[in-house]
């Protein structure tokens, strides 16, 4: 039986010396769309999503995960804000059109 040194036992031939930690998802595309839909909150989401890779490269894994969580949270709030804005706009437009039809302008006289 062949004896192996402690180094060979700990680090096998196919086993890497350093275990790479996966980069957390930065949600960059989601943050970009959020920045277009709801400008102020989307920019904050974009800022946090851009920090993820930078923090990961510096070895700050926990901060990178926290930045990714902030990015997806702000992006979600931006999407919610955009949906609420569109819903309120449609309701106001429908109310305005209804008002004009019921009480408003007589288009044939103009």
Verbal overview:
- By secondary structure, the chain is an all-alpha fold.
- It has helices spanning about 5-10, 30-35, 40-55, 60-105.
- The protein has one domain (about 25-105).
- It is rod-shaped, with a radius of gyration of 27 Å.
- InterPro entries: CD225/Dispanin_fam.
Structure class = mainly alpha
Q: How many angstroms separate the termini? A: 104 Å
Unreliable spans are: none
- Tally of individual domains: 1
- Helices, by number, come to 4
Q: What's the overall geometry? A: rod-shaped
List the secondary-structure elements in sequence, H or E. HHHH
Count of β-strands: 0
Question: Biggest β-sheet: count, sense, barrel?
Answer: none
How much helical structure, as a percent, in the residues?
A: over 70%
Approximate strand percentage: under 5%
Rg on CA atoms, Å: 27 Å
Give the rounded overall mean pLDDT: 85
What's the short story on this structure?
With 110 residues, the chain is an all-alpha fold.
Salient structural properties:
4 helices; rod-shaped; mainly alpha; 110 residues
Write the layout of secondary structure elements.
Elements: H1 6-10, H2 28-37, H3 39-57, H4 61-103
Helix pairs in contact: 2-3, 2-4, 3-4
């Amino acid at each position: 039986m062949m004896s192996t040194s402690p180094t060979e036992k700990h680090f096998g031939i196919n086993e890497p010396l350093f275990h790479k930690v996966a980069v957390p998802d930065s949600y960059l595309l989601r943050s970009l769309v959020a920045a277009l839909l709801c400008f102020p909150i989307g920019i904050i989401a974009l800022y946090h999503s851009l920090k993820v890779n930078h923090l990961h490269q510096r070895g700050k894994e926990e901060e990178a995960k926290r930045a990714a969580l902030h990015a997806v949270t702000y992006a979600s709030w931006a999407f919610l804000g955009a949906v609420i804005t569109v819903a309120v706009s449609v309701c106001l437009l429908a109310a305005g059109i209804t008002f004009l039809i019921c009480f408003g302008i007589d288009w044939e006289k103009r």
